[in-house]
Give the backbone structure.
Amino acid sequence: MRQADSTIKGYLYQFNKSILTILEAENDASIVLEGVIEDIDIHSSLNTTTIQCKYHEDKKYQISSVAIPILEMLCHYCESAYLGNKVFYILYAYYAENVESVDMDAFVEFLGSTKNKDILCKYFHRIYTIHDPVILSIANKPQKSQGEKERLIKYYKDNRSNLTLRVDISEFWRVFSYVKAEQFEVLKNKVIQKLEEITDHETAISMYYPNAFSMVASLSAKTNKRERTLTKNHLITFLTQQKTVLLNKWTLEALNKEQIIKTKKAYLKSAFSSNPDIRAFVFSDDFLDNVDETVIGFIQEYLNKYFKKPKLQKPPIFIFGNNHSSLMQMTLLELYKYQKSVNTGMIGNTFVADSFVNNKNCSPDFVCKMALLENITIDILERCKVNQLYVIGTINESLNSVNYSIEELGVPNINTIKYLVGLSKTLEV
């Protein structure tokens, strides 16, 4: 558990560093989060700089601790130099007992003596000349069998004294920097101070910081490099356009979870006080994996509170992740037991959009609409005259529209959702 907490904090630290890097960047620079090279790649009109973050509160600095990230950079340097590209490398690291810089001679000595099997198999053929073509062919395989790894290790053991570097490490050291990083809270405060340059202190803390964190965490998870690329202006524009605090798992990990959720509830209160509004809820697969059948109780409670006056209130829409069709069927049966009919848009085994939108082929006194995400489009939501859309968890599809408001609620459990929408007065965190 301690290792898991340490890993999470490492990600949180990297996100803070990413925000600061973006805010400190030149206006024409583009920043790639989780870049092709390292954690953060900065591309300006003059050069490319890449940053790797390491954060270890309970670990002392040793040359072996930084060897792998330096090797990653050294290998990329070899490839870049071969192509004639110049890149600057920064290892931004915090250790319980830190150092001001990494000694090049200590690193070279480590390369000459290490017995780390992963290092030998993954990096040595990229920085040393390998004269045996069979060994070189094995070394270049992306996946190696145990026998192949053992053969590589034996080759390096037998030929270590004859290996020659393909790269001048002293030349690499001219474009490499080791930066002694700040402690977690110090870095966080630097980010907030930078945000105060574009807004007031209170807004920086309560709104801009969590939303910057949410944005960076979300973009870092994208598979497409273009989606992970942004500029300072992109971030600032995004922050100024947000009207409320965004919620996702990383925001809740990094900040005061209870305070953020209470702030969000206060913001949503007015949205749930409007009777005529049509609300749609998308329950993502990742969320449903954690809450499972408790979503049935949520839907029943929601209907009891927000659809108890059919003449004043509009039937809500509940959308299930595609991997949870059986859970949707269970929900339908549970509502059926209480003589509550649902418009699913299904005719036989086929979803018919017109039936779903215009309430055909269903009981006139249906209490809600229900469907799988694969059957729902922006057009269908707009034709259903949705006013508010709530995405609970993470989905790959974009359902954004100017015709309804959208809230992404990346919360961990059904009790938090109940609190946010006004079904519960107490918050369980």
Summary: The radius of gyration is 27 Å. The mean pLDDT is 91.
